[in-house]
Amino acid sequence: MAEIVSKSDCKPVSELLNLGIVDELKKQPIHCIEDHYQFVLIYQQGEFFLLDNLCPHKAAALCDGDLKGFEIQCPWHRAKFDIRTGRGLSPLAGAGVKSWPLTIEEGCLMADLSAAD
Length: 117
Ligand code: FES
Prior knowledge:
The chain has 117 residues and is mainly beta. 3% of the residues lie in helices and 38% in strands.
């Protein structure tokens, strides 16, 4: 299971969700993020990607899935998603999961949740 990260060293910024210190987040490829909502944070090939964590099929946590290149595979029934867009790549993935924009502020990774429904 992926580690839940600490973000206590990063100050909160209005309208942005603080995901943690960039250098710390780079130490592993997949993080489970919980902050009123569940996300999977992926660090792959020098870039971060943030997606909704729950698989649209039966709500497995994608942060417990397998990462291969720019694909993450659901741990339960192997639905595949493109980590760059959240787009579903197999029938059980349906239309996929939401992808969130990220920014770096003073060494901390921030998610812009202003586009939340
Ligand atoms: S719960 Fe993800 S494929 Fe079934």
